[in-house]
Specification:
By secondary structure, the protein is an alpha/beta fold. Helix content is 39%, strand content 22%. It is built from 8 helices and 12 strands. Strands 2-1-3-4-5 form a 5-stranded parallel beta sheet, with helices on both faces. Helix 2 packs parallel to helix 3 (60-69) and helix 6 crosses helix 8 (188-202). The protein is elongated and about 55 Å long. The protein starts with a strand and ends with a strand.
Length: 227
Amino acid sequence: MRILVVEDEHKIANAIAAGLRQHNYAVDVCFNGDDGLAMATTEPYDLLILDVMMPGSVDGIGIVRNLREQSNHVPILLLTAKDKVLDRAFGLNTGADDYLVKPFAFVELIARVRALMRRPKQALESVLRYADVELDTQNYIVTRAGLVIELTQKEFSLLEYFMRHPDMVVSKEILMQHVWNYDSDILPNTVEVYVGYVRNKLDKPFKKSPALLHTKRGFGYIFGEKD
C-alpha cells in the first residue's frame, strides 16, 4: 500500500514516513501544498496524510477540495495543531475522512491509517485469506496450509497487494506504483525478481496445494487458483 505524506515540518514528515515504512507501507514525502497536490493528482496513492497549514498556493484543505472536485476519493487523514470543533468539522465537511490533532502518538496515527484503509471498495481487512493462505497485516505473519512462510518486508508488501486484488491481472507498472515509493530505483526486472522470490516461498514448497501466483505473458501477473 502506498501513502503520500504532505507536511512542511521536515522532522515530523520524515518521522511519520520512517514509522510507516517500518509497517511495510511504501511512502512518498513532500513539504508544501503545491508539490503535494501535484503528487496526489498524478500518482496512484492508497492514502494521503496532509498537514492543514503549509506553505504554497494551496494548503491541506485546498488539496482535499481539489481532489474531491476531481472525484478522487482516496482516503485522507488531516494533521493540524488546531483542535477546535469548528476547525475539525470544516476539514471533514470539505471531504477529509479523519482528523488528528498535533501532537499525537504514532500508535494513534497507525491505528487511524489502518482504519481508513479498511474503508475503500476492496473492503481492506487486517487478516487476508485466499485458499489455504492467510496473511496477517498487523502481526506480519503469513501461513499456507498452517505453515509459517518467512517473507522480507518487500515480499510481504507484494503478497499483500496480490491478495487484495485476487483473480485480477496486475501489471508490473501497477506493482511499481503501489508497492514501491516514488524515489525507489525500481525497474520492471526488479519486480520480476521479487515476484520470483514470493513464488518460490508461496508455491514451490506446497506441492499438494494449487499454484497461486501466475505470470500472464505480456500483461503481468494473476494471483488466484486459476491462471
